[in-house]
Amino acid sequence: MSILKVIEIMSSSEKSWEDAAAKGISKASKTVKNVRSAWVKDQSVSVKDGKVAEYRVTMKLSFEVE
C-alpha cells in the first residue's frame, strides 16, 4: 500500500506558465523525493508598465511517503 502526501508550492517564470510549472517541479524534486504528480491549482501574472512581467503558478504536488 502506498501513502501519498500533498504539498502546495508557488513558482514563477518570465517565459510562460509551463516554464513556471517545470521550474517549480524541478526545484521541489531536489528536496522532496518520489514526486508522483502535480496539479496546477491557479495561474496569475504580474504586470509592469502595461506588460506581463512574470507568469506565476500555484501547484499541488503529490509524493510517496517512504
Topology:
Blueprint: E1 4-13, H1 17-29, E2 35-48, E3 51-64
Antiparallel strand pairs: 1-3, 2-3
Offer a few descriptive terms.
single chain; 66 residues; alpha+beta; three-stranded antiparallel sheet; 1 helix; 3 strands; 58% strand; elongated
* Biggest sheet, spatial arrangement of strands: 1-3-2
Q: Report the count of strand segments.
A: 3
Question: What is the string of SSEs from the N terminus onward?
Answer: EHEE
Radius of gyration: 14 Å
Instruction: Kindly name the structural category.
Output: alpha+beta
Share in helix: 10-25%
How many strands, which pairing sense, and closed or not: the largest β-sheet? Answer: 3 strands, antiparallel
Q: Given the structure, what is the number of helices?
A: 1
Description:
- It contains one helix and three strands; from the N terminus they run E-H-E-E.
- The mean pLDDT is 96.
- Strand 2 (35-48) and strand 3 (51-64) form a beta hairpin.
- Strands 1-3-2 form a three-stranded antiparallel β-sheet, with helices on one face.
- With 66 residues, the chain is α+β, with helices and mostly antiparallel strands.
- Helices cover 20% and strands 58% of the residues.
